[in-house]
Amino acid sequence: MEEIRKSLQNLNQRLQQIIGQLDIAAKKNQIKTLETQSQNPDFWKNEDQAKEVMQQLSHLQDQINTIETLKTKISDTLQLTALFKKEKDDNLKLDLTAQVRQIDKQLDQLETATFLSGPYDQHNAILSLHAGQGGTEAQDWAEMLFRMYTRFVERQNWIFELVSESRGEEAGIKSATILIKGPYAFGYLKHEKGTHRLVRQSPFNADNLRQTSFALVEVLPQIKADADVNTSEDDLEWKFFRSSGKGGQNVNKVSTAVRLKHKPTNITVESQTQRTQVQNRQIALSLLQAKLWEKNQLEKQKQIKNIKGQYQPATWGTQIRSYVLHPYHMVKDLRTNIETSNTDAVLNGNLDQFIEAEVRSL
Fold it and tell me: Fewer C-beta neighbours within 10 Å, C or N terminus of the chain?
């Protein structure tokens, strides 16, 4: 029992350190400010901005509630350890041990937030998937990854919008881009950029031969117009066309889809899934700003050497994770060496152990 008591005291020390690092007092003041803002009669005139404020408010409230709950759990569990002296109850000891494990896991998740201090970590994320060479096999793998990430987003209680999608002729997707809206979405997902490798028995040939497929993941922060990235209207070339994807009659019959080119760099982006041209223009501009930000980061890294892990372009040489479904089941991250045989859980969006390990490693 003394061992359990010491564990609880250590957990309490960790919690106090986290409270200091997260600056809980400042967060409580921020909650008051956001609550006052939300009570303004004109608050919902800009619906998108209002939703972001409410999501940020909910995130801060959840973080505070989690801390208060952990305080209570640790205090109550410490009090229960005193009962064990009076009642030699083995079942009580098992319950207390399970409670310590649960508190430890919750602290791990809370602690991860203290590592997200980058200038854009709090921003929404723009995640793009690209099938590698291999036709239908690779396109099917890209769609599996699409499902994995959207499930992860749902598990986080975030939301996502499909920005653009190019379907495969037979199955899967050639490419897709989604905008992920959630507190620290970019901070959590930025390390997912790179090449993802799948090994499995092919479902697309009669012989069920083992097949290796690749897909590329890109992750960028959503950059606001008043951020460091400047785009002059003279440098932009807009084109409008009819969307071929989902979205209803207006999307498919009217030229609502947008393709935007940045003439100085030849960077081109597009948005085609929103119902109006104005909405697609806004998203396309946001995508372009993110691409330009990425280009700026790469140029900085060429000048600043020997800085570990600050930036790595998402290219085919940057394989980060391997997913093996045959002849055995294993998902292994090649950077942190975190691995699991529960491939079904991972492909259903349970990425926490991989993301937390990578966030903490840098």
Answer: C
